[in-house]
Amino acid sequence: MEADLVLHSGRVVSHIGEFHGGVAVRDGKIVAIGDRDDLPSAARTIDLEGRVLMPGVIDPHCHLGVNYDYDEDMRTETAGAASGGVTTILLFARNPAGSYIPFYQERRARGESQAYVDFGFHFGIQREEHIAEIPRIAAETGVQSFKCHMGYEVGNSIGIVSSTDAWVYGAMREAVKLPKGVVSVHCENTDLVTMLKKEMMATGRQDLAAYTESRPAFVEEEAIVRVIRLAELTGCPLYIVHTSVGAGPDLAAEARARGVDVTMETCPHYLLRTAYDEDLDARAKISPPLRDRENLEGLWRGVLGGAIDTLGTDHVPFKKTGGDLWSEKPGVVSFAWELPLMLHFGVHERGLSLSRLVELNSYNPARRFGLLPRKGMLAVGADADLVVVDLDLEKEVKATGKGTCLYDGWKLRGWPVLTVSRGRVVAENGVVVESEHGRGRCVTVPESERRD
Ligand SMILES: [Zn+2]
User: Fold this and answer.
1) How much distance in Å is there from the Cα of 10 to the middle of ligand 1?
2) What pLDDT, on the 0 to 100 scale, is given for residue 451?
3) Is the per-residue pLDDT at 407 higher than 90?
4) Cα(90) to centroid of ligand 1, in Å?
């Protein structure tokens, strides 16, 4: 049997460990793993020369088509993702206008005509009817992951509808009935944010730290405690998105010890940036906000020690005005740099093991969102979603695309050099293979369409 592609003589890293060898790929799947002698001949053979081979990154958290056109974002941003070693992205999509059934059909079709890599959806609870629609959404679209937002005051600059506690509880009560049901929550106390923001605005401050101090860490901590309690009461798996507070990992670990099924995510920006960094201004506004050194170190302890489960970029391309702090839209981009940032600052500087990085970046997101065993693993029969990394390659971050990058000009050591999506090379040496445009497929599909 001839394979389509063989990658051999590499340092093969999975979530459980590593060995010297490679993989063979045929028809988009991994068909063999092992020593060079165990692998068949192939149409294309690549000698990895000891470089690292890992499962492709699964980014569980992004927003596309929010500011720019959805089709355009699905093309440009998934190209960036492919160049950064990301082979699956999960979009937190919202449809405040109505039902998610036609919305899904439309977004899926448009996404599949544009994307370079695979993608899937979580749906935001934006009105009470969405809670009642959960069983039908799961049956007709396959989406079993729902998000409740908090911390967006009425009249916020991006039109997000915050959930009440009743919405969170109601969504959990429905999602827990699904085989892979999970509720994600953006944890910030909406009432406190509304009040404290008003007070801070009255001071006239316009610096980035004023935004941070208008929604201090306790506002997020309080909400984390509250939603963990609701998850405990309903038995619903809980996914805490973009944790920015250092106390977060401890709260998650305590809850897990009591048997609560809680998964915690943080983002590269909370590990690498603070609101007090001198080169940052209102354009670095993110929700929740960048914090301080102490919170940053607490998050690293969670990443290194195991209490943080996943990394999401919260990638969202916005045109920023650079004007008024309070009306500036929150969000930054990092698809293309998340992996190099974690290799540089995590693996090289803080001793993060590569298998732990695979767990954070691929295995845990796949497990949480029902993509195992097709995604997130190096196993025979799994999709051949792979990334080859040169741990010693040094390059500068060059932000040429849309959105705000917080790392422009940073010199990083450790970069992806080859990205394979379902057996096809979609990026090589940071350059996307243009002809793979429109090859990405939706991974959240109804049961009748599942092929694993
Ligand atoms: Zn987000």
Assistant:
1) 35
2) 67
3) yes
4) 11
- Segment 176-226, tens digit of pLDDT: 999 999 999 999 999 999 999 999 999 999 999 999 999 999 999 999 999
CA 62 to ligand 1 centroid distance, Å: 6
Q: How far is the CA of 290 from the centre of ligand 1 (A)?
A: 14
Find the 46 Cα to ligand 1 centroid distance in Å: 37
Question: Tell me: the pLDDT tens digits for 263-293?
Answer: 999 999 999 999 999 999 999 999 999 999 9
Shared-domain flag, residues 163 and 219: yes
Does any domain span residue 45?
yes
Please check whether residue 408 lies inside any domain of the structure.
Answer: yes
Based on the fold, state whether residues 174 and 34 are members of the same structural domain. Answer: no
The CATH number of whichever domain residue 426 belongs to comes to 2.30.40.10
- State the distance from the centre of ligand 1 to the C-alpha of 145, rounded, in angstroms: 14
225 and 77 in one domain? yes
* Å from CA of 126 to ligand 1 middle: 14
Q: Which pLDDT value is given to residue 450?
A: 78
Measure 63 CA to ligand 1 centroid, in angstroms: 6
Asked if residue 339 is part of any domain, the answer here is yes
* Structure confidence at residue 364 (pLDDT): 98
| Residues flanking ion ligand 1, Cβ below 5 Å | 314
92 alpha carbon – ligand 1 mean position (Å): 7
Q: How far is CA 71 from CA 60, 64, 65, 109, in A?
A: 19, 9, 7, 10
Query: How many angstroms separate the alpha carbon of residue 49 from the centre of ligand 1?
Result: 38
User: Is pLDDT above 70 for 157?
Assistant: yes
- Domain enclosing residue 259, as ranges: 56-368
- What percent of the chain lies above the pLDDT cut of 70? 100
How many Å lie between the centroid of ligand 1 and the Cα of residue 288? 9
Whether 425 shows a pLDDT value over 80: the answer reads yes
| Residues 68 and 8 occupy one common structural domain | no
Q: What is the CATH number of the domain that holds 361?
A: 3.20.20.140
